[in-house]
Write a structure and sequence with these properties.
Helix content: 40-55%
CATH topology of the largest domain: hpI Integrase, Chain A
CATH superfamily of the largest domain: Intergrase catalytic core
Number of strands: 2
Number of helices: 15
Radius of gyration: 23 Å
CATH class of the largest domain: Mainly Alpha
Distance between the termini: 66 Å
């Protein structure tokens, strides 16, 4: 192991290249690391630690950064949730692991402790089917942007796609003539998801009907399925909507619908999984549909299966009478 004379801040761009090239992470994952580490970079600068070298990072620095995260306010003016704090600390762990892999002396990754999550912290947000229906009815479908927004939300709920996966969809993936010929019956696509793993996703006939209505308004030859009609600096040259844009769209209609939670595209993914389980799907099938590598990740949805088991026990077990 060697002590680097280069500051932690200057190591970060090389670390991001390492993530994409050597580790084979997706551009989305690499960008997430970049965004999470940006806060750590700002914290170092605020505390006159811009020149801090990897081997100089101490337990005390990590403790102070954790305190900073615990008091950090989000866009709503409330303190970051423990789950959000964990994302920032995990990115720092990944940076420490990189130093270790490159034989650069630094604090061991395991020294960076994550906040302990309570059952309340782990509880996921999801919408009931009636709330989903209310949300889907919010866009003004007399406007092309409204049709697009309806198609986006129908797609998120029909397929359980991650928001980054939905932004990657292209028009050419849909055989429009075949869909119309088969009366818009369920349609399936193979997509490369998180970590490059391939899985099949399914579009319901209702979802397809909204996608077709939206596409019939398109006079352009742009490749993305979902495009931005008011291009700004945050969008790509092909007008492809970004994850942030779709998050804004969902939040906008959530507010319009007066729903009790601040829904995001990931809330629709949670709602998709919850709906499947509540209608009898097994956890392994839901794992495959969501593209989770580990069944443990899918087990956050056991709040549904646990409730079902409780009801079955109450209904059928004589000892519960």
């Amino acid at each position: 192991m060697v002590k680097s004379n280069v500051s932690i801040i200057k190591h970060i761009p090389v670390f991001l290249e390492y993530c994409e090239v050597e580790k084979g992470l997706s551009q989305v994952s690499t960008k997430n690391y970049h965004n999470f580490l940006k806060l750590f970079t700002n914290w170092l600068k605020l505390n006159d630690l811009s020149d801090l070298k990897p081997h100089e990072l101490s337990d005390k620095h990590i403790w102070d950064y954790r305190l900073y995260l615990s008091h950090k306010k989000d866009y709503k003016g409330t303190c970051l949730k423990k789950t959000s704090q964990s994302y920032y600390l995990r990115s720092l762990r990944a940076l420490m692991t990189y130093f270790s892999d490159k034989d650069i002396t630094s604090l061991p990754a395991e020294k960076i402790k994550l906040p302990k999550l309570t059952e309340r912290d782990k509880k996921i947000k999801f919408l009931s089917y009636s709330q989903i229906e209310k949300l889907l009815e919010m866009p003004d479908i007399n406007r092309v942007s409204g049709l697009r927004d309806r198609a986006i939300m129908e797609t998120l709920f029909s397929t359980g796609l991650r928001v980054s996966e939905s932004t990657s969809l292209n028009v050419k993936q849909f055989n429009l003539k075949d869909i119309e010929k088969n009366n818009e019956n369920e349609y399936e696509l193979s997509i490369a998801g998180k970590g490059g793993s391939v899985r099949t996703i399914y579009f319901s006939s209702r979802c397809l009907s909204w996608i077709l209505k939206y596409l019939k308004t398109r006079k352009d030859m742009l490749p993305p399925l979902f495009i931005n009609y008011r291009k700004n600096d945050d969008e790509r040259d092909d007008h492809r909507l970004t994850s942030r844009s779709i998050e804004s769209i969902v939040r906008k209609y959530t507010a319009m619908a007066g729903l009790p939670i601040d829904a995001t595209p990931h809330t629709l993914r949670h709602s998709y999984a919850t709906d499947l389980l509540s209608h009898g799907a097994d956890l392994r099938s839901v794992q495959e549909l969501l593209g989770h590598k580990d069944i443990g990740t899918t087990q956050i949805y056991t709040h549904v299966t646990n409730t079902q088991l409780k009801n079955i026990h109450r209904k059928f077990h004589s000892g519960s009478k």
